[in-house]
Structure formats: C-alpha cells, structure tokens
Amino acid sequence: MASVALSEAEKVYIVHGVQEDLRVDGRGCEDYRCVEVETDVVSNTSGSARVKLGHTDILVGVKAEMGTPKLEKPNEGYLEFFVDCSASATPEFEGRGGDDLGTEIANTLYRIFNNKSSVDLKTLCISPREHCWVLYVDVLLLECGGNLFDAISIAVKAALFNTRIPRVRVLEDEEGSKDIELSDDPYDCIRLSVENVPCIVTLCKIGCRHVVDATLQEEACSLASLLVSVTSKGVVTCMRKVGKGSLDPESIFEMMETGKRVGKVLHASLQSVLHKEESLGPKRQKVGFLG
Amino acid sequence: MAMEMRLPVARKPLSERLGRDTKKHLVVPGDTITTDTGFMRGHGTYMGEEKLIASVAGSVERVNKLICVKALKTRYIGEVGDIVVGRITERRRSAEDELAMRGFLQEGDLISAEVQAVFSDGAVSLHTRSLKYGKLGQGVLVQVSPSLVRRQKTHLHDLPCGASVILGNNGFIWIYPTPEHKEEEAGGFIANLEPVSLADREVISRLRNCIISLVTQRMMLYDTSILYCYEASLPHQIKDILKPEIMEEIVMETRQRLLEQEG
Asked: What is the ipTM of this complex?
C-alpha cells in the first residue's frame, strides 16, 4: 500500500483526534469523504465506472466475452478480476512494484464474490457445458489516496450495474451443430441484477477507536484494519484482517457491527446515485476525464 | 454517520466564473509569444528563429519592454532568506551525527528552517539558527504548489482565531496550536505530546479545510486571505467546507472581501 512518512508528533495528534471523534479534516469516525461516481466513461467496454473518493481515483471496465463454462459449474458463467496499480498513482508502483498490491486486491474481490447470491451467474449461461459469458472486470488505480478497497468495490458495483451484455440465441442445425446468433439491435441487451453485489467497508483501528474511510495519514497511524464485505441488506459475505497489529474479539465484533451499519447506508447512497444517473437518459452530459 | 455520493460536475473555467474581461495570454512550452524582436526577454522565454518562444507553461507578463512568462505551477526554487518547512528523509551517517543528532531529530520529523545558501545545481542549505525555527510538534501539514504562497515579510503567523500557521515558501503549510508560553522556548527540539484541546482542534481542522479550498480555487495564500476564508466558513460545519458548492461560495466571499479591502 502506498505509505506516507509522518513524524511522531503528527501521529500523536491524529490518534488523539480520533479518540475525540474529530479527525484532521473535521469528519467524525464514521463519516465518508465526498464520493463522485460516473458510469459509462470508457466507450469500448460492456460497462465501466469511475469513482473518486477524496484523492483516490479508480476506473473499472467490464468486458463480456464468450467462453466455456467451468467443469464443476456447467450452467453458469463466471467473473474474472484483474487489478492494475498504475505507476501514475504513486512512484512506488513503478515497474513491478504494484503487482503485490494488485494480486492482493484481486484475491479479495474473488473472495467477496465467491458465493451463490452476489451475482446470478445462471443468467450468464448461453448453452450448458458449451458456451457462457465470462465477465472480465479490470480495475485501474489512477490515484492512491487511502481507502482503496472501499473505492474499488463501489466502482465494481457501479460498473456491473452499467454492464450491457448482448442478447444471443442458440440455433440448432439438422446435423446438430449449434450456431450462435447475435441480435441485430445493438440496444437489445441483458443487464445484471446488482441487488446483492457486496461492497467492502474498511475499518482501521486507531488507538482504541476505529475509523471508516481512512486517509493515507490515518492509515499510517493504524496497526490493524478489518475489511468487511457487506451487501445492501446488511449480510456479511466475507471478512478479512490486514495489518501487523492484533485485534481483540470485542473490537472485531464492534467493528463488524459498524461495518454492517455503514455498509447499508453506502449501498443506499450508491443505488440512488446510479438510478439518478440512469434517469438522466442517454442525453446526459458526460464529464469523463477532461472535466 | 454521513455519506454523500454525487455525480461529477464539469468545472467551469476560472475566467468565466470571475467575469473577467481581459483573458490572460496563456502559453505552453514551444509557443511563439511574439515575432517583434524589440522586446527584452525575461524568465521563461528564449530566442529562437527570430521570434520569442516560451519555455514554460504559464501566462505572459509584459512590463514595458520586458516580456516574461510566469509559470502557473512550479517546483520550489530556493532563494536566500526563504522560510521552508521540510521533512527529514535521509541523514548522513557519521559517528558525530549518531551521537549528537539521534536524540533530537529522527527520519520523518518535520522542521522549519531558513535558507542560508543556494547552490548552482538548485540544492539549498538550511539553518535553524534562531529559536523560532526547529523541530515541529503536533499539528497538521498541508502540501500545496509553491507558486501559491505569496512572498511576504514574515511567514510565521499567529492567527487571531486561535491557531498559528507557518507558510513555507516551498509549499508546505504547517498549522499548529498556538503555544501558551512564548518566553521560554526550548528551541523546539523537545516535542510536547500532551493532547490538544477540542476547541483548538476544531480551529486547526477548519483552517486546514479553508486552505485546501483556497488552493483548489487557485487563490494566493497569505495571512489575510486565510483569515477571511476562515471567517467566511464559520456558518458551515467543518466537514462541509470541502464540498464543491460550499467551497466555491466561501472562496467567492473571500475574494470579494479582499477586493473591497484593496479597493
């Protein structure tokens, strides 16, 4: 993770501030920074989204391609995640420096989606055992300003909401060979239901309290963090502890409860923004990268 | 808990927002400024093929016969007498250094110092030969572009709102609680790690957010502009200052007050 050097006195100031529920930028322990979400920013993908959370900038692109289903799940399609930590985020990511962080984030994404209810994979099946849709989700880290996991999970959910998969029909010949026909209308697509797609809430332990949405400076003061992946109904799909320090069981329980509570509000805000954007229709002004 | 998600809004160009009539003449490196050879060339320009060409990206300034280009965003260029705030990243390893300095200064510490000399390759040598410089204790650091810090007589300010600020010429702004005992200064090397009171923290956080909003709107930073911005932000909650619409409103009010004061 990108790290920033702090003096002892600065760390003491941050820790004491968290104890009194007044962080350096005036937020409380459970407040998020302002989030900007925009979908459909990359034109040659099936779905894309860009999320800006303070100084953290994430771009996600989803491409739907045809592939063969996995042997153990012949009636389902699947998702593949790839995370690229670009060198423009921080100089530490130059060359192969960002690979470790990229694999860690990708593995976390695989884990949180590794259950039956997050995405309905049966809708991605075209013909059992032969053809299915594979969704390649590519995450690009443009800028690193703390709280990467939360921003990435919000962006992935927004991109999946925006994904449009072309409708296909399977035609059978007399000889038995199958042909796949793509619909003529480019707007005839199927969309994924993202009701149960989880989002990650990172809770960093600073002193004896925990904070949500830590900045890089606050992450430098925290020895242990808990990543909780929560769905919109408050169901926890996966939990992971990161950091060198230890957490006692009461803290873990408290942090999980906070994560569930914060996660539900996060989902509600994200849903309302995505629906608002969609209601603006195809004529909305796209801000993109040059705004 | 507070959570706000919004759709992005395209930024309006600055001149449109201010309603300026005269647009600045902006150039990028390689642009021709003028083909008239009667001008003297200043900083940021060079002569090539009978015309004056810009070497930096910025706005053209003309004073009688002198044309120069003032860069919009620069790296810090040291000058003797500048006050800077810096973080120790590396230190020389020698026996005397180990014995003497380790107790006082560690890697990662912040210090305030004055520029003593500038070398030809751009490196500067600093000194802390006064009790007002030295290691910095508890507070908040804000990093901005050096071109936004106005050159003034003094850069260490004790603001009337209850906190002090050091405006480093290199763009590092340090905000800290005003120390109570001014007379007995230990030279600043023994850091005070007592918890800072909540009232002081609020002032410091508000100042930090005000400075960030001034910088986002490309306003020059000096004690008066920061103070006016602080006063304009008082009706809002501290964490709301960073919201784009409130940021614009506060900075607009600051700009008006500054114009009234000058005019």
From this structure: 0.89
